[in-house]
Amino acid sequence: MYFVLDVSGTRLLFVGDSQEGAWEHVLDDPVSKALVSSVAFYKIGHHGSHNATPKPFVESVLGHGAYAMLPWGLVKQWENTIPKAELLTALAQLNTHVVRADAPVAAPPAVEVDPGLLWSQVTFTV
């Protein structure tokens, strides 16, 4: 399931736990692909796991300089695989501002973090 919120041309993309099959459908369909293109904000799918955000989406659809939220906390069992290192590298190469739930004090510019570390906020001008 994908949810795209468009506010005066500023798009926010929420993909929940969508995995490879759903991504293939979206990326292979021109209309669907257009809906998820050039978003200002992307909620990274399924905690950044191996099949939740395909590299082609990051490299050719997401666009440069977007904000991406990584809702993730360390789970010992998956500490070496989630979040996927290749995903974080691909995001960094496109100057994506990654807002990480596990590292709120390292939030990118224009991100406000609650002093109690309960929330992060990105403000967009629309």
UniProtKB/TrEMBL annotation:
Source taxon at top rank: Bacteria
Name used for this protein in its record: MBL fold metallo-hydrolase
